[in-house]
Amino acid sequence: MADPKGFLNHGREVAKSRPVDVRLKDWNEVYVPGSLLPIISKQASRCMDCGIPFCHNGCPLGNLIPEWNDYAYREDWSAASERLHATNNFPEFTGRLCPAPCESACVLGINQPAVTIKNVEVSIIDKAWETGDVAPQIPERLSGKTVAVIGSGPAGLAAAQQLTRAGHTVAVYERADRIGGLLRYGIPEFKMEKRHINRRIEQMRAEGTRFRTGIEIGRDLKATDLKKRYDAVVIAAGATTARDLPVPGRELKGIYQAMEYLPLSNKVQEGDYVTSPISAEGKHVVVIGGGDTGADCVGTAHRQGAASVTQLEIMPRPGDERNTVSQPWPTFPMLYKVTSAHEEGGERVYSVSTTHFEGDEDGNVQWLHLTEVEFIDGRLTPKPGTERKIPAQLVTLAMGFTGTDRDNGLVEQFGLDLDERGNIARDADFQTNVPGVFVAGDAGRGQSLIVWAIAEGRSAARGTDRFLTGASDLPAPIRPTDRALMA
Question: Where in this chain does the record put each 4Fe-4S ferredoxin-type domain (predicted)?
Fold first, then answer.
């Protein structure tokens, strides 16, 4: 145990953010560089090294949280990094992007603010990169087997790295022009700078993983041809079919899916554009959807110089504190969350539904009409007399995703079965109905969190390795049927 009295002597202290007026002038990460290390030892000491660490239940990766908390408290960064990487291929991703269900399950969180697990995690990995403790793990021998991984998001990269280290020759196919999937083009730079992806890619290249960008399986290369080339295939193509809003006026110019809008600002940071082809500059922006993707749109619009930003959510405003009856510890509670993007301004409106859009004579959206809604007999119902309109010259739809892409032919060409939710069906080894074809991440689970994606990639890698060799020593932290800890 790090410090038997740590949780009594120290309160919760999180990473410091740069002032709003400063960070809105650039696209760098919002946190003050280096602000965590001076405080992280005390924060790690708050871990009680519980006899039953429920943080493990909250984390699908099975992260050894009390162990690396102890090493961080003692500032043994090399040992902390080893324990961190034992269960997580990319802790710098999860430490920045995961909503930390481990903290919701922290035992200390029953009656005190939880341990800052996420901040400890990112401090350990940043220190590991700084000191050279992150090195390529090159396999001692090659198996002679080949694997194609479709998709380079967190699930695909995790599967690829595990299989490469097991000695297989792995090629990752990505339809975009750069590796990273939604990490690259769906997550704004201010949440995670892309240098973190780049150095992991270089590590994976050094280990032997090969990358093929600009190739969409199903369109540019038939799935059947891919299967002939490789001994096994792992599909980690994500759940990229966005939920639409079929209301009058949807066809007006200026209404975009979030994943049409966000990647362009990232491409500006990559140097592909001087300014984004879809910019919020000087416009009244409305973001439909109250989740993390919606918040990403809010922060992006602020940095582009929007005249105003309004975020709409059809559900009621969550509470500020855990409801111990409907969302008891250690489940992940739905709480009112103020992200860095929300700190930067804008208005958040709850319990409203869009009825239609109104445009000008040139077909550009100008107004969004909405109505308040309430639950009646378990259904969201419009409240009479609450209709109004708000200015909307740029609208982004951030209402989630409904499944993997069906338009590119990948599902049909492989002949894959789907489950009742429209995801690619798989067995206990993450194998589809087609022998040698496996699925990991959102393509099989449905829209989920980055920590689940990495866990899926690791587990699918074990199933693939066992298919290729008859046995596997690779870890499988989750089963395909496992779900988040919910009430």
Answer: 38-69
Q: Which two tokens stand for residue 215?
A: 């190739």
> Which pLDDT band holds residue 57 (cuts at 50, 70, 90)?
confident
Residue 295 to residue 319: CA distance in whole angstroms: 18
Q: Determine contact, residues 134/81, Cβ cutoff 8 Å.
A: yes
What's the pTM value of the predicted model, to 2 decimals?
0.97
Place of tokens 């991703």: 93
Encode pLDDT of 76-128 as tens digits: 999 999 999 999 999 999 999 999 999 999 999 999 999 999 999 999 999 99
Q: Where are the alpha helices (DSSP H) in 238-287?
A: 258-270
Q: What is the pLDDT of residue 367?
A: 98
In the chain, what are the helix, strand and coil shares in percent, each to the nearest 5?
35, 20, 50
Cβ(420)–Cβ(428) under 8 Å? Answer: no
Strand partners, 287: 311, 396
Across the beta sheet with 437-439, the strand order is 210-213, 169-174, 146-150, 232-235, 437-439
The residue assigned the tokens 């990460």 is: 29
Report which residue type is found at 389: K
Q: How confident is the model at residue 175 (pLDDT cuts 50, 70, 90)?
A: very high
Beta-carbon count within 10 A of 386 CB = 13
Phi-psi region of 346 (alpha: psi -120 to 50; beta: other; left: phi over 0): left
Q: Identify the bridge partners of residue 147 per DSSP, sorted by sequence position.
A: 170, 232
**Following CA atoms 418, 90, 257, 148 in sequence, which dihedral angle do they give, to the nearest 10 degrees?**
-50
Measured distance CA(288)–CA(246) in Å, rounded: 13
The residues, any chain, with a CB within 8 Å of residue 202's CB and separated by 6 or more, are none
Question: Residue type for 211, please?
Answer: F
